[in-house]
Amino acid sequence: AAGAATYAGTTVTAAAALGFVSRIPFTANDTRMSVRVWSPDANIPVRLKVEDHADPTRSVETEATTTAAGGWETLIFDFANQANGTAALNLASNYDKASIFFDFGRDPASAVLKTYYFDDVTFVQGTPPPPPAGVITFDEIPPPVLTSFGNADASIAADPANAANKVAKVVKGNPSSEIWAGTTVSNLPNFAIATIGFTATKTKLTAKVWSPDAGIPVRLKVENAANGAQSVETEATTTVANAWETLTFDFANQVPGTPALSLATTYNKASIFFDFGTVGSGKTYYLDDLDFTFAGQGGPPPTPFAVTFDDSATTYTLTDFGLYGTAGAVVADPTGAANKAAQVFKGLTSEQWGGTTVSTDANFSVANIPFTATKTKLTLRVYSPAAGIRVRQKVENAGNPGINCETDAFTTTSGSWETLTFDFGDPSTHYIPNGPTSYDLTRPTASLNLANTYNKVSVFFDFGRGNGGYAPMPADRTYYFDDLSGVS
Fold first, then answer.
1. Which of 125, 127, 230, 295 could form a disulfide with 29 if both were Cys (CB 3.0 to 4.6 A apart)?
2. Taking 60 as the threshold, does the pLDDT of residue 303 lie above it?
3. Using one digit for the tens of pLDDT, what is the confidence trace for 5-27?
4. What CA–CA distance (Å, rounded) separates 313 from 175?
5. Between 83 and 301, where is the model more confident?
6. Which are the contacts of 85, defined by CB distance < 8 A and separation ≥ 6?
7. What is the spatial order of strands in the sheet that 71-78 belongs to?
C-alpha cells in the first residue's frame, strides 16, 4: 500500500507457532529456493528471508529481481549469496520459517499501491552449474549480484537508451560516497565469477559504460575471491557524455602502485569504480556487457598440443639418458601393429633418473606447450608391464634447462594401455620421491610459471628406482607411451 514500511512483507507458514513441519534442508551444495512470482512491474527487488521460528536472530536473507511485468516468472534465491548487511547462511541453524518482501527497500514516502502474487515456494536441490567465463549482460536469469561498497548504490535497471535492455545502474552519492566507492559484480558464491583466463597475449577486458560526462576515470579491479591480496587494477577513461561506449581495460598496464598481473594467480572476482579518486557527486553511471572472452586478442586459438608418432610428415626423435640397454625407438604398438608408439627400456643398471626426451624440432624441442592459469594438465597413454609404477613427466625450456617443472602419475594396470594425467599446476606432486608412492617433502622441484616458455618434454618410467635411488630396478622392463597431448 501507499506509505507501507520499507520492510513490509508476508510470512508464510505450514505449522503452529510460525514454523514449517520440518526444517529447510540446506547443505553446502543445496543453498537455493525458488518462488514463482507475478509482478505488475519489472526490476522489482524481491527479498526472501528464512529463519529459526524459535530464535529470530538466526536468519539469512537474499534477493532476486523481477524481469517481467504482468506475467508469471520463477525467481531463484541463493542463500549462499546473502543480502548486504545480513547474516550468512549457517548450516547448523534450524531454518523453518520464511518471509517474502516485495519491492524491498522502498521508503514509505515513495511507496504506491501495487499488487503482487506468489506461488510454489520450493527448495531447489543440486549445485547450479557455474556460468561460463563470457559476457555478463545483466539480462541473465537469475541476474548477477551487485554488491556495493564505499556508499555507492548499485541496482539492475533499465538501459537509459533502451528500456527493454537490462544494465547495472550505479549512483555515486553526494557527498556520502568515498573516493574508492565501487561495485562488485558476481554470479557465483563468495562474490565470485568464473575464472578469467588471462594469458601473456590475452590481458584486456572490455565493458560498455554510460557516463553523464566525458573524461571520467573508470577503474576495473580483478582479484582472487578467496584472497583479496591477489589482485590487479587498471583504468580507462570515458570519452563521451550521455551515451554508451566500450572501454578497454588492459591489465598488462596496471595502475601505478598496485600489483602487476600474475598469470599464476586465479582471478575470479571483479569490481568496477566510477570516477575513481573523487568523492561522490550524486551522478549516475551505467554498466553493461562486462566481457571476459578476450575477443580478437592473441590471434587465432593455439594449435592443440599433441605428439602422436603417427604423422608421416613429422620426425620423432627419442633421446635416452641414464638408461643402459636397448635405445628408445618409435615402434609398432604392442597391441596393434597399425599404430606407432614410443618404446623405452629401463634395465637393472639404469640410473634412478633415467628417462627419455621426445622431440619433434631442433634442440630436443617440441611446439610451445600452451599452459594457462586454468589449463595445466598434459595426458599420456602408457603401456606398462606392472601397475603402481611411478611415471614422471618433465617440461622445460629447450634453451634454458633451469626453467622446468616436473610432476608424477602412477600406472594402475599391467599389460594394457591406460591414459595418465600429469597436472603441472598441482604443487603437491613437485617433490623428489622417497618410496614407490611417497615423496621427500623437504625437496621440492620447481613450480609451473606461466611467464615461462615450456617447449621440451621428457618421460621417466619407474622414476626413483635404479642406481642411487630408493630401491633397485626389480627387473629389466620395457615400457611404451603414445599420444602426449594437452593442455586441459
1. 127
2. no
3. 999 999 988 666 677 888 899 99
4. 70
5. 83
6. none
7. 71-78, 32-39, 117-124
Beta bridge partners of 332: 340
Across 379-410, b (16+ Cβ under 10 Å) vs e yields bbbbbbeeeebbbbbbbbbbeeeebbbbbbbe
Q: Could you tell me the pTM of the whole model? A: 0.43
Burial class (CB in 10 A: 0-12, 13-18, 19+), 257: exposed
Which residues, other chains included, contact 76 with Cβ-Cβ below 8 Å and sequence gap of 6+?
A: 32, 33, 34, 64, 124, 128, 141, 142
Pairwise CA distance, residues 241 & 382, whole Å = 62
Which residues have CB under 8 Å from 436's CB, separation 6+? 388, 390, 471
Q: Which three cell numbers stand for residue 401?
A: 634447462
How confident is the model over 169-179, as pLDDT tens digits? 999 987 779 99
Q: Is 452 left (phi over 0), alpha (psi -120 to 50) or beta?
A: beta
